[in-house]
Amino acid sequence: MSAPPGRPSLGSGWIGLRFTRDRGGAPSRRGPRGNDERWAFLFIAPMVLGLAFLSAGPILATLGISLTSWDLLRAPELVGLDNYARLVDDKRFLMALRNTTFYTAVSVPVGLALSLGLALALNQAIRGISWIRTMYFLPLVTSAIAVGLVWAWIYSPTSGLLNQLLGALGVPAQKWITDPFWAMPSIIAMSIWQGLPANTIIFLAGLQAIPGDYYDAASVDGAGRGGRFRHVTLPLLTPSLFFTGILSLIGSFQVFDQVFVLSRPGRPTDATITMVYFIYENGFRNFKMGYASAASWVLFMIVAVLMFAYFSSQRRWVHYQ
Amino acid sequence: MLTTSQARRWRGLAALAAATALLAGACGSTTPTTTPAASTPAGQSAEPGTSEPAASGGYTGPPVTIEYAIWGDPAEINSQKAVVEGFTAANPTITVDVTVADWDSYWDKLQTGLAGGAAPDVFAMDGPLGPDYQTRDVLLDLTPYIEAEGYDLGQLDDNAVKDFTTRDGVVFGLPRDLNVIALFYNRDMFDAAGIAYPDDTWTWEKLVEVGKQLTRDTDGDGTIDQWGLYTETTDMENAWSSFVWQAGGDILTEDGATSALDRPESAAGIQFLQDLIWKEKVVPDPAIFAETGDAFEQGVAAMEINGSWLVPTHEAAGIKLGIAPLPAGPAGKATSVNPTGAVVYANTDAPEASWLLARYLASPEAQEKIMALKASVPVNKEILATSYPASFDGAQVFADSLAFAHLKPAFVGYNEFATILQTELDENVFNAPNKTAADAIASVNEELNGILAGGQ
In Å, how far from its chain's centre is CA A69? Predict the structure, then answer.
């Protein structure tokens, strides 16, 4: 966070290492390549081993379970593709799919744009910048529950902060969470606020990895502030943008906490139910583990297809130093 | 059901971390958490007949530790431990490990524990959810113990016993306490308005009339700041199922095979709640208190229709609490009763000790202790008839209400049924009057019948 400008920091270096390999481009790294690689594998080993031993088995198992009717407690019964066929006609599932898509389509671009703006604003050499940065990173270390409680109060129709602020501007009070129109946007706003610091850290690291020489050279060539941003900052930040994009996309398709917390008491309505909540509800409340597993695989396939398209697009817009 | 009580709401939030963790590891762990097998000698037989206790029943097996899991506030663990103390005093070779989880994580933990073969030996069961467990081979059939001892189920509330007995007469667990719905009122507000307290002569009309008198804009700023009546709309138990029965309707048909909500009387009951909110405007829009909790507890509603579990909460809030029976509807008096019971895990290592704990919890001694917590109505008829009615001001009302109480419906697929139904009602009937109750029911009734058919 406080690395002096011009020195490569973890963020971009790591991303360079990870993704330039895919294109076969020559990564700019110091030291012999083989040595770096060995270290890289060592560093990702805990994650990879954890995934391989703790997640891969259950993930594959859900594929088998999705072909069964299983209530979690008695022996599963093979039903072929029935679960998948039923999903297509399930109104609540289609609502969940629609809501999750809407959530992703809004929260990812808006969240990334705001994080980038925040990172630019925080990438200043002014007094007390560390304190200011810390303030912005607080949501990252605050528990989702505490955040949910505070936002529930912000959205309260009578005494809520939001309605009071809007009331001062003459806007009539809204019923944010219980209003089918505002419910999802309200959840999205909370999620963006919550996700802001994680993306900002990565952008900030990316910004600080841009060598100062580039800006000097651009200035000499007559580039103004806007020119320097467009032709130096933005292209060199595309690896960070690519990386935060992946995390945000995957994360937003898995949205659960915010919906779970804000829809208490009661349950998510047709306007707020999401894919992962649907999976949770069927698996853990309705004794339909097979059905829930099928929904998980549909979700997985959607994310996989999106990721494939996203990675394929990398060549066209991501510039590595 | 306690799920929807405001008191439980904030506790539910703590479930989040656990719930997400469970999602991630749902298919994994079979690590035993409690009751290590080592504590039960391998040679001990699980056959109830072989370690036959005397009729009045001291424990005769080897020393064991059993886990007794309940849902509730972490603070409740001490009162529940106190209830169990009498049991361990009488059976010194049994150690009871009481564990508590909030409502949401309780069920997540229980299901993963059952699936992984490491469930608590004895655990609390909510009446409506019972059939979903009874039909899945995870509960111990207590009938052999009951027959061997000649245990008289007739000493427990008949409705409550029903929820823990299958149609074929198999007994899975014993009821522990009852949740009964009544009308709470704030004596101070009635006194200030010079209105007589609610009593057993009240009808729907009277409720609306007094509700209107007590719904006020006390500071004249154009918004209501004292409501006549408050209730919760997100579960049938808090209010609307009682209205359905008071109107002469029902939730299910007599054979339990189909929804009875499409009867005009049933719709009329749900319609009454919508009217209280949107037509008579004596109950606040559910959105207003969705985030901030119980309006009655906060002292901004003069009456509340809700369950016995709120008595300690309201008293702690300093409300001068009065309790009256629910007003009569067009078809007379009715209320809702929902038992909580103790069931035994089918694969427990200590079936005899577990049975004895379930039996103890329904005994007069334990019932007196449960009663003293004021949060629920005892299930033991002897205690109900003798010490309970005078145990606090209003207890008599709960005891008397049992005479016209309907059992909250319990059937396979209950949660799915409730989710489909309640999502529609919340969105289109209670949170906003987009549809009449009859229209809303018409839009989901076929789906509800499908769920009932699937569970048969």
Answer: 32
Helix (H, G, I), strand (E, B), or coil: what is residue B293?
Answer: coil
Residue B245 and residue B297 share a domain: yes
In which region does residue A170 sit, left (phi positive, over 0), alpha (psi from -120 to 50) or beta (all else)?
left
Residue A143 has pLDDT above 90, yes or no: no
Distance in angstroms (rounded) separating the CA atoms of residues A234 and A215: 12
Residues B77 and B188 grouped into a single domain: no
In chain B, residues with a C-beta closer than 8 Å to the C-beta of A277 are none
How far off is chain A from B154, nearest CA to CA, in Å?
32
pLDDT tens column, B378-389: 999 999 999 999
CB-CB under 8 Å, A285 with B419: yes
Contact check, Cβ <8 Å, B27/A58: yes
Domain count, chain B: 2
Structure tokens at A26: 């020559």
pLDDT for A148-169, tens place per residue?
A: 888 988 998 877 899 999 999 9
Strand partners, B177: B340, B378
- Of the pLDDT bands very low, low, confident and very high (cuts 50, 70, 90), residue B1 is very low
CA distances from B124 to B9, B98, B107, B112, B313 (A): 19, 11, 10, 16, 21
Residue tagged 């093979």 (tokens)? A78
* Residue B397 sits in the same domain as residue B288: no
Residue B146 and residue B169 share a domain: yes
Same domain, B159 and B198: no
ipTM of the complex, rounded to two decimals = 0.81
Do B131 and B68 fall within a single domain? yes
Residue B54 has pLDDT above 50, yes or no: no
The per-residue DSSP string of A133-146 comes to HHHHHHHHHS-HHH
Domain range for B289 is: 181-337+409-455
Interface test with A, best of B2, B27, B225, B421 (most A CBs within 10 A): B27
B76 pLDDT band (50/70/90 cuts)? Answer: confident
Query: What residue type is assigned to position A259 of the chain?
Result: V
Domain boundaries defined on chain A: 10-30+66-317
Percent of chain B with pLDDT over 70: 87
Side chain identity at residue A279, one-letter code: I
Q: Is A10-30+66-317 a domain of CATH 1.10.3720.10? A: yes
